[in-house]
Each structure stands twice: as C-alpha cells, then as structure tokens.
Amino acid sequence: MPLPVRNNRVRLPQGPLFWREIGEGDVLVFLHGAWATGEQWLDVVHQLGQTYQCFAPDLLGFGESTRRIKHYSVQLEVEGLADYLKLLRIKRCVLIGYGLGAWVASAYALAYPDSVRGLIAASPEGVMLEKLNGRWRGWPLLSSPIPFVGWALRLWAGVTGLFGRGRSPRTSLRLRRMLRQSPAACQLLFRRRRAERQSEYLHDRISELQCPMLVLQSETDPADLIAMAQVYAQAPRAELNVLPAIGVPEPWKLSKEAAATLQIDDAIASVIQTFVEQHCRD
Length: 282
Prior knowledge:
Low-confidence stretches: 155-167
Structural class: alpha/beta
Order of helices and strands: EEEHEHEHEHHHHHEHEHH
Mean pLDDT: 86
Helix content: 25-40%
Oligomer: single chain
Number of helices: 11
Largest sheet: 8 strands, mixed
C-alpha cells in the first residue's frame, strides 16, 4: 500500500517554503528542475519512501514557495535550503537534484560539506563552457513582460499557420508562456548580470566536491546538458551513469497541462537506492 505524502509549509527568513514528505529513515532531499516543482520527483519518492525519509521542497520562487522576492540567486536558494534543513534538525542528508536543482545541491555541498552524505546530480546545470556561449539566446526577449512580444508571436503563428508552417511559432508561444510563469527560473538562468551568474558557476570548483557523487545523464539529453554532466563527472569521487531516459522532455513543446505534470522517470529510483546503499551510509 503506497505511503501517504505529507504536505508542509514553513516561513524562512528568505520567504515561505512548501514541501512534500514521505517515509522514515535516512534522509533524502530532492530538488527539482528550472521549469518544475517538487512534484517532479513524486514517482521516485513514492518508491524510495518505503526505505528512506524523502523531502521534495519547492525551491524559493517556485510552485507554492512563491513570494515577491526582488532578486533570485543560487546563493539565495542555498541559504534557504540551509535554513530549511536546520529548522527540521536534519544534520546530514543525501541531496538529489535535477537540472537547476542539481546546481543548487552542488553549491550547497560546497558550502556545507559536512552536512552532505552524498550527492546525485541528474542532467545538471551550473557550469559554463565555451561551447555553451549563447545557449539562452533569444530567451530574455521571449520572457519579456512587454505585451508586444506576445502579440507578434501570435500574429506570426496565425500567418505561418495559413501556409502550414505554424509549428515553430506555436512552440515559441508555449515557450513564452512557460517563461512568463517561471520568473525565478528565468532570473536564475539568464536574466541576471552576466558577472553575477559567472560568479555562481561551478566549473572551477568541481574538484572541491569531496562527497560521494553520482552524475546521471540521459541518452536523450541535448549536447549542452551532456557536456555539463561530463564536467560534474570530473569530481574526485564521482561516477557517471548514462540512462536510456530520465523522462523529462522539453516542457515548452507540450501543452500547459502536460508540462505541469511532468515527473522524473521512476526507473531511476533503483539507481538512486543502489548508490545510497553503497556510498552514503555512515
């Protein structure tokens, strides 16, 4: 019989934080990707909750952990995570992150190394390579609050649709809607000063990650995510595991309803459990 998921809220100095919790035992904390919430991990925590105590928070500025914060940063997310775990009296845990969540988890492991038993980074963000310059080109404009951008895209979609070529502009409209609904993700990834983002990238600090580490890469990942995963895999105690799929397609190519319910493929639960049992026991 599936264990019930307990929903909780707390007010941190940085703002309100909502999380899902299931199970008992050693603590696993799951951090979601840029275009998702903690719900992204539900399939996985339902399986692992039979053995571990699993926490799946919405990062600050995401899902039900929203409030008007003037400026989001990875450092803010790390501070919020630290205060959250301290409030729950969790002294040590295994951190599992996807995408942006893997960036935050890795930055936390660097800031609080004694608090992290192990780290699992799935399709991680947070490193800069020369080949990735211009990765977000055009996205700041698409995420702009200026109404003209949306009007122009709808006009483009209508005109090209007359000639049977409406797919690309419709995809752009879906992407714009997703970006406009995710202001924290946009700011963290590409709507901050370049110098600030560069100061939080981790490519120069990967060698400092001394905890046991598993890097998960999907065969379906685009080239940029594969390149970043390979950088993370250079950590001293890291191992790389390439999976057939992690199960998270590009959400802007889906309907709003389908994108909202995306979850990590539950097949990786056994991979996570094996790694934790082998490397993260005291």
